[in-house]
Amino acid sequence: MFEFLKRKPQIARPIFESLGTDMHCHLVPTVDDGSRSEDETYLCLSTMRDAGYNKVICTPHFQYPRFPNEEEDIKERYQYLSEGLSKRGIDGITLAGVGGEYRIDSGFPERMEAGKFLLVAGRYLLCEFSLHQQLMGLDETLFDLQMKGYEIILAHPERYPYYSSQSHRLEHFKEMGIYFQVNVLSLSGFYGESPRVKAFEMIDKGWVEFLGTDMHNTLYARALVDATHDRKIERMMSHTTFMNAELLSLDANSSSKF
């Protein structure tokens, strides 16, 4: 982490300025595989600001049994982070609330029954699937969530290897009314060539409503810097509109500047 501070690379251009809000990141320290400390969160946020972001919604993992987080505890930890960062001060970027990234897994039915989800911007339920194998019954689970009134964002669909050759499955989710969120770093090849190709393909088809950094730590921050040097990403940002900016209408009372 401190090597990043000593050799902090330069942002080429704030190419994500049109997005304004990042709605997927793991910067509440020590609750999942994301940030390990307030210092690391501070460094990541300063890089995100330089890349063009001005608001950040934190979305810790809720995944059984690896990250058995509870909503009330996460809200308390987020508030503690917000208060700590406000004392340090950083211009140009604001913590804009806390949601969650919910893995649809064996523990998910219990969460769905409890109905205590932390929603992104108080509106959207951010869900993810297993990165390794397709879970049976996904269609039914998503439909049940919709019947309960949830608007669903599917996190990083480009990263699920079992859909790399199954575009019809992704198209089916779009027909169901599921929003898609692609990771910015997928576009730069951070996760490999297949997710990069799939991400651009879905954007070209008009299937992607949101971009998210999925920021975890200073390694991701360095990769975000690299992404600002990518001319293909810059060109895409110049002619593609995403829904991130709509999240800027958050109630000011739910935000905390630091």
The CATH topology name reads TIM Barrel
Task: Indicate how many domains the architecture comprises.
Answer: 1
**Order of strands in the sheet with the most strands?**
3-5-6-7-8-9
> What string, H for helix and E for strand, traces the elements in order?
HEHEEHEEHEHEHEHHEHHE
Model regions low in confidence, pLDDT < 50 over at least 5 residues: 250-255
Strand fraction: 5-15%
**Main beta sheet: strand number and arrangement?**
6 strands, parallel
Within CATH, the superfamily carries the name: Metal-dependent hydrolases
Distance between the termini: 21 Å
Quick one: how many beta strands?
10
Number of helices: 10
- Determine and state the CATH class: Alpha Beta
User: What portion of residues is helical?
Assistant: 25-40%
Shape estimate: globular
Give an overview of the whole structure.
There is one protein chain. By secondary structure, this protein is an alpha/beta fold. It has one domain (2-8, 17-239): TIM Barrel. Helices cover 38% and strands 14% of the residues. It has helices spanning 2-6, 38-50, 71-88, 108-114, 138-147, 167-175, 184-187, 193-204, 218-227, 231-239, and strands spanning 21-22, 55-58, 61-62, 94-98, 101-103, 124-128, 151-155, 179-183, 210-212, 256-257. Strands 3-5-6-7-8-9 form a six-stranded parallel beta sheet. Strands 1-2-4-10 form a four-stranded mixed beta sheet. Helix 2 (38-50) packs parallel to helix 9. Residues 250-255 have low confidence and may be disordered.
What can be said about this structure in brief?
This protein is of the alpha/beta class.
